[in-house]
Amino acid sequence: MIDKLTENYQNILTALGEDINRDGLLDTPKRAAKAMQFLTRGYHQDLDEVVNGAIFESDNDEMVIVKDIELYSLCEHHMLPFIGKCHVAYLPTGKVIGLSKIARIVDMFARRLQIQENMTKQIAEAIMKVTCASGVGVIIEAKHMCMMMRGVEKQNSTMKTSVMLGTFRSKPATRAEFLTLVKD
Question: CATH for 49-183?
Answer without folding.
Answer: 3.30.1130.10
